[in-house]
Amino acid sequence: MTSSETIDPIELMYETGWTDGLPVVPPTSEKVKEFVIASGGDADTLIAELPPLGGKATIERIAVNAVMAGCLPEYMPVVIAAVQALMDSRFNLRGVMCSTGIHTPLIVVNGPQ
Q1: What are the strands, taking DSSP E only, across the chain?
Q2: What is the value of pTM for the model shown?
Q3: How many CA atoms lie within 13 A of 38 on its CB side?
Q4: Domain locations in the chain?
Q5: 62 Rama class: left (phi>0) / alpha (psi -120 to 50) / beta
Q6: What dihedral do alpha carbons 82, 54, 2, 80 form, nearest 10°?
Q7: Roughly how many angstroms between the first and final C-alpha of the chain, as a whole number?
Q8: pLDDT in tens, the chain (113 residues)
């Protein structure tokens, strides 16, 4: 997404189903690049394959979601660690994601930098 688009980017994200109506920050190329750099890794580094469909959580895709969620670039190491924690077999993310119920993971981070 580029910042020069004439259509309202927040409305576009809602209409395409990228958000459920909660406020989001448009993930411009510049912002995403800033977050990738803050991660200390390469954009196409694969962090996880997420169930149930095997979506590829690369550093760049994690950065896009972090930008949209309103994170700061310095949060990237914690956001990446959260994705890795979800993939721990003891958590059983596949079981959560394939349930017929309305379950979803929630991670709360608190404390000093």
Answers
A1: 46-50, 55-58
A2: 0.81
A3: 21
A4: 9-97
A5: alpha
A6: 20
A7: 30
A8: 555 555 688 888 888 888 877 888 999 999 999 999 999 999 999 999 999 899 999 999 999 999 999 999 999 999 999 999 999 999 989 888 888 888 888 999 887 76
